[in-house]
Amino acid sequence: MIHSDKKHYVVFGTLALLIVLLVVANLFLGSVNIPAQEVLRILSGEEAEKASWTFIVWESRFPQCITALLCGAALSASGLILQTVFSNPLADSSILGISLGASLGVALVMLAGGGTIATGVFTLSGFFSVILGAFLGAVAVLALVLFLSSLIKSNVMLLIAGIMIGYITSSLISLLNFFATAEGVHSYMVWGMGNFGGVSLEQLPAFSLLTVVGLLVAVMLIKPLNALLLGPRYAENLGVNIRRVRNFLLLATGLLTAVTTSFCGPISFIGLAVPHLARLMLGTSNHNSLMPVTLLAGGALALLCNLICVLPGESGVIPLNAVTPILGAPVIIYVIINQRRIQYFTDESIGNRGRGS
């Protein structure tokens, strides 16, 4: 039996190697068949046989690959944080209505605004209006959740309030769909399928910076997350300000969800399934090991999903949200069936920390 520390390094190294292989596969494979030697020439800065191949690799495959890696890590970190904060194995970024807030913002732009955001100062249309609408919608719901968190002490009650916010936003989206044009409904439906290709090469630095900032905040809060595993009273005895930590965690989750949903659409199951997958691989709920493995596993799963989406080749690209449930749902079913085993991981982590190990 592998020692827990060695097991962590084995899992970490395996996932890192898997990510390297998936990055290579995402750069070399796509809906357009480009010879491997031509891809190597393009990546080394040389001229390709066709100019269109250079455009595809640098303007499509490369930003899509980086976006999938960061988006998978961001959604997985958000799911892990929320599952710990609310002690709920079925919690993810959609449970507080933040991703639905982004969807409502896009619905207002596409269905009510005709794809345009117009104010007295400026008018924004096209893809940028969708990004801005999604971001503002997610931030608005996040602000509401943070306001409620200052009034509601109980995590369970805050969770219920978040679910109610989600129901309200879903109802508003349904009403907007009912009164919208067929073209608007179609555009909104396509956005709702999810797509890692929503970040251009010019937008990639801003997307990466915002995502990395959110991930750094999540990593910095590993110690409070471990304290929350022991229960609120024990955490308070350790000097943890529960309300302040919860607000910081919600803020990090909100930032990650807002950025990823704005650019890539609402992506299902990655944030829900990956934290459980990481727990099963490690056999522990200690966030010192669990957080980095969750980030790597999320990035690897997102890259795999992106690769599967382009398998039809010239026949088209499969919608992202048609692939993620196929990979994520079996993990959740396994967790439900083996719930006691997952609980054992948690109990073991708490016991070890209680003994000072």
What would you say about this model in short?
Helix content is 74%, strand content 2%.
Describe the model.
The chain has 357 residues and is mainly α. It is 74% helix and 2% strand. It contains 15 helices and two strands. It has helices at residues 4-28, 36-43, 51-85, 98-112, 127-151, 155-179, 182-192, 204-220, 222-229, 232-237, 242-264, 270-282, 287-309, 324-337, 339-354; strands spanning 116-118, 123-125. A two-stranded antiparallel sheet has the order 1-2. Helix 3 (51-85) packs across helix 12, helix 3 packs antiparallel against helix 13 (287-309) and helix 5 packs antiparallel against helix 11 (242-264). The longest helix is centred in the N-terminal third of the chain and has 35 residues, at 51-85. The protein is globular, with a radius of gyration of 21 Å. The two termini are 19 Å apart. Mean pLDDT is 82; it is low at 346-351 and 353-357.
